[in-house]
User: What shape does this take?
Amino acid sequence: MITVDMRDRKPIYEQLIDNIRTLAVQGILQPDEHLPSVRQLAAELAINPNTIQKAYQELERQHVIYSLPGRGNFISGDIRGITEQEQRRVGELLRTQLQAAKKAGLTREALITLIDDVYHHAQNVEKEE
Assistant: This one.
């Protein structure tokens, strides 16, 4: 479920952060669900445990996960707040890009078609995974 792409130019710890955050926001990882240990995930993904630890620390800072000493890391119970925060962030990014597209001369209809294409492509990718 948690994956990284070694060919991606994005640092592995950032891929982990994005992947776990997305799984949590989409409800695939449920609140209070136990995450793999640093060692277990490092072995599973064949990456340095320090990379996993760095990602877990950042996810904890972002309140996506919490840790219990001696017990491990868990998905935060405040996923709804994280989801709303993520939706606001994406909405702002989209707003900025739509304004740039409008300035570049794209029509409303062309933008709607593009959004539909991207949305349907994303759904097909999710189904394949």
The mean pLDDT is 90. Residues 64 and 84 are 13 Å apart (CA to CA). The longest strand covers residues 65-68.
